[in-house]
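Why do we care about 3D structure at all? Because function follows from shape, and shape follows, mostly, from sequence. That is the central idea of this module. The next example makes it concrete: a single protein chain, its amino acid sequence, and then its structure expressed as tokens.
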Amino acid sequence: MSKTAKTILVLSAVGFLFLAGFVIRGSWLGHYSGRDSQQLIIFHAGSLAVPFKQICEEFNKSHPNVKIIREAAGSRICARKIADLHRPCDILASADYTVINTLLIPKHTDWNIKFAANEMVIAFRKDSRKAGQINKDNWCDILLDKDVAFGRSDPNADPCGYRTVLTIKLAEKFYNNPGLVDKILTKDRRYIRPKEVDLLALLEVGELDYMFIYRSVAEQHKLAYVVLPDEINLKKTGLWDLYKTASVRLTGNTPGTFITKLGEPIVYGVTIPKNAPNRKLALAFLTFLLDANKGGAILEKNGQTSVVPSPTDTFGNLPESLKNFALPI
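And the structure:
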């Protein structure tokens, strides 16, 4: 091969690699950096998958050119994608507003708005073992039956997971059943999953008979469920003092550290991280989400009661356009 031909071949190869690298980098940045002004990245709790799909579809009707990228995961996992992995994100919607407070404020965001409520239930299929017997008074005995399998989510990944533990601890006191916590938490540990909705498939195919879940998710998936007493279901704001008598130890902000989570009523929270690639569009989406006649109505239809407006100790840091959806403390 002549020297000229070799030179042309080398230059062609370099040019191809440069172009390939440009395309790859451009594609990656186009997907993650938010340079496309019509892209919106949302991390949200698994229990918000159904209503957020509907909310995004409605939002797209007035913003047809917006490409919404949704990632559903346990709320603590969502927060760690931002705090630990530094993933770009326009909106974080957590099943527990305190996840935002403990894992993201003040380094990764400045504020937090409470927007929806829920409650803990035990969901099952109509043909689950002992489905015809289970009720709010005997569910502990049913779950402990050796022929029955139940699932729950990971407390360190998902608020539903630690709320399950809190519910069981409150139940031990409510039913005056010493040792109940250890018995239930040591049974069926092979059915612990990163988020509560991961258990739905196991329940539907019959590998599980029961699962601890939010009432809204049970209703969205048309599952039967046991309504638990208010003293243990983490639903009632008036029972805050009772709920906080139960606690659970969780992993903290950095490896090897831990935090103590006290029981409290179930309230969801939402924020825009400081690294949001498209803050203007995120504000427009939150205005839609928090509007009682728009996103709020969709949440209500899906079994999640609106708590807008609610007090927040971050009120002073809220964007002006969102202050109508919160109250100062």
